[in-house]
Amino acid sequence: MRTEYDFSKLKGRRNPYATKLKKPVTIRIGSDVIAYFKHLSDRMDVPYQILINMYLRDCVQSHRKVEWVR
Question: Which residues contact 53 (CB under 8 A, 6 or more apart)?
């Protein structure tokens, strides 16, 4: 095994599955909702976008229905 490796000549390659993992969207969310998740993110030391994604994923996995929509 070498003691040193030269990585300067390597070409970077993009992850072919990265586009399938998450998709950027534009969504209008109330400032109070953003403030709530930002407050949680400060306490949990997790970015608020990840908390929102985790909450929405939990809704999907538990097949949670919105009661106030017909």
Answer: 22
Report the number of distinct structural domains present in the chain. Answer: 1
Full domain range(s) for residue 66: 25-70
27-64 b/e (C-beta count within 10 Å ≥ 16 → b): eeeeeeeeeebeeebeeeeeebeebbeeeeeeeeeeee
- Look at the pTM and tell me if it is higher than 0.85: no
pLDDT tens digits for 1-44? Answer: 888 888 888 888 887 787 778 888 999 999 999 999 999 999 99
